[in-house]
From TrEMBL:
Coiled coil: none annotated. Residues 4-32 form the Protein YjdM N-terminal domain. Belongs to the YjdM family. Signal peptide: none annotated. It comes from the Bacteria. Residues 46-113 form the Protein YjdM C-terminal domain. This is Protein YjdM.
Length: 113
């Protein structure tokens, strides 16, 4: 029996190899073996503005003034945020900032402290 992954588009079990690609005969979707290996890991990879990998519990520093939506508060450059939590989505860092409260940040506006 083949140990090839199922198609990520239609979840068909009938995938086959064609050179360096994996192909689904039912929906004609093609993807690389590297993409299949990355999808199997199911690990959330979040990188900061400098390309360093972030993990739950890390401390980060804000690299740009960020306006807080719905208020007149601003998170200033250099604000250190401790004990972050990584989440799925556009704003991939969930944290609590002293003086402001709970927030979600984009990883592109922080660097690892």
């Amino acid at each position: 029996m083949s140990d090839l992954p199922h198609c990520p588009m239609c979840h068909s079990a009938y995938t086959y190899e064609d050179g360096g690609l994996l192909v689904c005969p039912e929906c004609a979707h093609e993807w690389s073996k590297e993409a299949a290996a990355a999808a199997e890991s199911d690990e959330l990879v979040v990188k900061d503005a400098n390309g360093n990998r972030l993990a739950d519990g890390d401390s980060v520093t804000v690299i740009k003034d960020l306006k807080v939506k719905g208020s007149s508060l601003v998170v200033k450059v250099g604000t250190k945020v401790k004990n972050i939590r990584l989440v799925e989505g556009d704003h991939d860092i969930d944290c609590k900032i002293d003086g402001i409260g709970p927030m979600k940040l984009k990883s592109e506006f922080v660097r690892k402290a």
